[in-house]
Amino acid sequence: MRVIIEKTAAQAELRTARIMADMIRSKPQAVLGLATGGTPVNVYQELVRQHQEEDLDFSGIKTFNLDEYVGLGPKHPQSFRFFMQENLFDHVNIDPAQTHVPDGRALDFDGHCRHYEQRIAEAGGIDLQLLGIGVDGHIAFNEPGSSLGSRTRLKTLAGETIRQNEKYFPEGEQVPRLALTMGVGTILESRSCLLLATGSHKASAIRSMVEGPVTAQITASALQLHREVTVIVDEAAGGWLERRDYYADVEACHQLLETGQLRALGIGN
Ligand code: F6R
Q: Domain 2-242 classified CATH 3.40.50.880?
């Protein structure tokens, strides 16, 4: 796990967007896994800016979103499909047929989820999966206790998640209690994962995910088993990490290697 601690949320978001843009530039037919929620909003804004001002080309890109609320159609302003249209898809040159979000109106939950997995497989698997993290340590909507081998399926949201998401719904409107979500096993099959977390309310979850034991009680901790994970946090979200000096050291060494400053690393002295 590579842990990058940026000073501010804006810097963490920019770094995340740059990694995604690099993937799009280096692999124009890339398959991206996408997340919703408050965390990635500015990441998508930066990708839109790069499309408009720097010709970032989405024409060959395929996307698969992590999850969707059950009961919400694409026109519902709180649906994740609506979020993706508003924040990214409507502003870049992506082929709408190549954007996939689980259908919140599907009633054959199992059939729809199986089909979703099949579409990911047919696309050749996910190259880069963007993730956020819940305050209870969930990735996608894999709530504490979810199997670490789970696949896309129907999931009951935890009370804490419903409370956290209330802020996105108009007052008095009920937050859905069910979601369709990629499983932890599905996420672990992505070729690389990029998790972004900002704000002190994520500090505990980030510490458990990075430095705690691998446990189904913190489903994000399963990422410790993945070979290609980058975690980007701001100082607030990384504030509880015990080994943050070491992570900063790793980044400093990376920087020296990338810029060819080998003598500073004791190579060739
Ligand atoms: C969203 C998702 C969730 C969120 C997480 C954090 O597609 O899968 O796991 O990433 O709940 O949400 P925010 O960013 O709103 O704090």
A: no
